[in-house]
Amino acid sequence: MKKILSLLLLATMLLTSVLATACGGGGNGGNTVTDEINYDIDLSKKPELNVLMPNSGKDITAVNNNVNAQVIQQITGYSVKYTQLPADATTTLNTIMMDKEAYDVMKLTKDQFSDLVDQDMLLDITDALKTFAPDMLANISQDSWDVVTVDGRIYGIPERASSDNIENPIVLNYDLMLELNLDVPETLDEFTNVLKVMTEHLGKPALTFDKFTPLVPAISAAFGIYTYWQEYDGQVLYYMNAPRYKDYVDYMHSLYEAGYIDPEVATNDAAVATNRFVNSFDASAGGAKAGAYACSLWTVSAITTGLSTKGIDTTDTLDNHLAYVRSLKENAGDTEKVYRSSGYTYITAIPYYMADRAGYALDWMNSKIKDTETEDNFRTMVIGEKDVHWTLTADGAYMPINPAFAEKDDASYYMTGSNENKYTQYWLARVRKQPELFRAWSLMMEDADTVGVYNIVDFTPPLSTYSANRSAIETNAQDWFYIMLKDGSGKLAEYQTKLNGQYKCADATAEINNWYNNK
Amino acid sequence: MSTKKQKMTFVAKVKKYKSLIPFVIPAMMFALVFSYLPMTGILIAFKDNPNFLRYDVLTAFQKSEWTLENFRILFSDPEILSYIRNTLIISVMKIVILFPMPIILAVMITELRSKKFSKLVQGIVFLPHFFSWIVIVGIFNSIFGMYGPINNLSVALGGEVVHFMGEPGWFRWLVVILSGWKEIGYSSIAYIAAIMSIDPALYEAAKIDGAGKLKQIWNITIPSIMPTIIVMLIIRIGYLMDAGFEQVYAMLNSLTRETGEIIGTYVYRLGFSMGKSDYGLSTAVGLFNGVISLILILTANYFSKKKTGNGVW
């Protein structure tokens, strides 16, 4: 018996030590890896590609079997195995890179991209693009390439936002406004009056938003603050350092003091705020209700769904129920300017240790972007086929065919870079799917080229100081706004000193200006 | 332990218990591989951000400079002191207010006459432990909200509406209340088990001597589970620097950061939420936490042994 026991123990010990060496030894094989791209490959061979994707919220089998994945396989001829990162991706991504796991292509967020470039993990594809990806070079703008260029070399494929949208309206309960004889406000004074009358009528604060909205662009526009980072007299500044930020805070605080702003904005998540707005359509509903809601344009879908539960017919546009304000003016005669969003949500890159197969990866991505008279790969991928998923209207717009078009809902997830010359017109088919959303979008986008102001950091290449301090700068500015909304702007100077000194906003500002003046 | 045993030399001990040694080896191996070897990683705190992605561990280590920069960042931040303070206050509040609760609950549950009812109560009080913090905070956001039942009640009784979730003065109390609601039931398991194993003869003897329920609890139940209580308390004190990251992260908002930000959430906010991989700073924070926790647990154990003779070792 004793012998058997000691044998068992011995076996356990051996197993433990083997495991230990296995753990310690993993991932060290990287020394022999080169980052030389192999140009001498036969592109007709098309090996299976391993692609690392961001989290989709779906099961990975569903990701691989998705109809869009199959379409891409048909178009490109490459079979692809997709893997996805977990929602909290940092640790997993680092482990993958440390173990040099064989992913031919990685679809990364801008932050992940900038971190990996910093660590020297991504492949320089500047020269290989000319050989393997002529369609990408032709259909992605220089502005976009600049975002992925570090010291003159290109490390990724930028995926520009589908459309540069004006998308931060204040949505108003138009039913209520008609009932109370109110016009859609254009100036701050008119807006204050709308809130006053609504608040008195509802008995509850009339304006709501969520806890991530320290800057309500529609309101701050009246004070010359259109977006987060913009130019003021030749210098790029963060909104909290803007010349008239104090006026913006004072105005918001005065609304708060007067009882026109939902006192729970600092703890509201978007669902709660949406619910409060929708409740204002229901005279019998108890609890909080707000007739004005500063939100993202895309919340209109959720609002529409909410309204349908309140007995409102939402199959067509809601001209008589919802009104939108994209920006307010201080004086009626002021010229209108408003935040126009853009930027790069995803950047696709190749890890340096996969240089040997990089040609195939680039070829695959290139063929996804190709969109000519004869080869409309990109169009098929994004919105599907004519007369199956969409039709052309008389004036050349793409109209979705429901319900077949629904299967293209996930199409953008599978993109690795976009055909910038074509994407916006395809993407609009998606907005047209919901009549009210399309109406709102069209209202917001009127004269967009004239009135739109871009957030300058949407177009920066990786900037190390900014990127290292961004999180602290943004959360602190946000915290302080909600505190000042309640308590007034008394401590603003103190907060600004902290922001610029301790949280390095001054350094980040200098870095951004340096890039901006030399671009 | 008798004084005789303590005087035995190490060699003599090894000789005496040699047949038991093989049984200890797997545990020692486990501790060595999974606890002691990884401790060498502490060195990262003294390195200038080694690039572990591109190079293997040893090369990355050699390539980076020795530095105390991470500790400088950690201690030069004027706000970190207030976050350490928040961490300690929340932790101490949790211990003082919440530590006795599971013991009381365990005594109450074991004193229930109906076994069926006792099981039902146990099931109900264990349940919240299995909810995630996000769900619980969501529920309590509406309960404590300005339009929620607590405020409605307080208004009906002539009070004022309070924005509990956005009030810095209330934040720590809410942390304790929510934490208690979630964990008291589950924490009572150990005590219930300890109480179950008390010899019933003791209670019978006490009854014959005329002791009532309260006397029995005070003079038999509590002293019998005292070793369990002490061990749990020492372990709890070891976690003093961890005020409950997940909970606080879910509850924190712009208005309550001042009283609610703890070390864990602060470090996360500094950069880890953004996809950065600053191993140096996080290791420095981890090391700092570890050292404080070690000191706390040693002190607690020392006093416990001195006063009651019970300790973890």
Please explain how this structure is put together:
The complex is a heterodimer of chains A (519) and B (313). Chain A is α/β, with parallel strands linked by helices and 519 residues long. Chain A folds into two domains: 151 residues, Periplasmic binding protein-like II (D-Maltodextrin-Binding Protein, domain 2), CATH 3.40.190.10; 227 residues, D-Maltodextrin-Binding Protein, domain 2 (3-Layer(aba) Sandwich), CATH 3.40.190.10. Chain A has 22 helices and 17 strands. In chain A, the strands form six sheets. In chain A, strands 2-1-3-14-6 form a five-stranded mixed β-sheet. In chain A, helix 6 packs across helix 15, helix 12 runs parallel beside helix 20 and helix 20 crosses helix 22. The longest helix of chain A is centred in the first third of the chain and has 24 residues. About 2% of the residues of chain A have low confidence. Helix content of chain B is 71%, strand content 0%. Chain B has 17 helices and no strands. The longest helix of chain B is centred in the C-terminal third of the chain and has 30 residues. The chains are: A alpha/beta (519), B mainly alpha (313).
What is the count of DSSP helices of chain A, taking H or I runs of 4+ residues? 22
Number of strands of chain A: 17
Largest interface: A-B, 53 and 39 residues
DSSP summary: helix tally of chain B: 17
When the domains of chain A are counted, the total is 2
N-C termini distance of chain A: 79 Å
Q: How are the strands ordered across the major sheet of chain A?
A: 2-1-3-14-6
- Helices and strands of chain B, in N-to-C order? HHHHHHHHHHHHHHHHH
Radius of gyration of chain A: 26 Å
List keywords for this structure.
heterodimer; A: 519 residues; alpha/beta; D-Maltodextrin-Binding Protein, domain 2; 2 domains; five-stranded mixed beta sheet; 22 helices; globular; B: 313 residues; mainly alpha; MetI-like fold; 71% helix; 0% strand
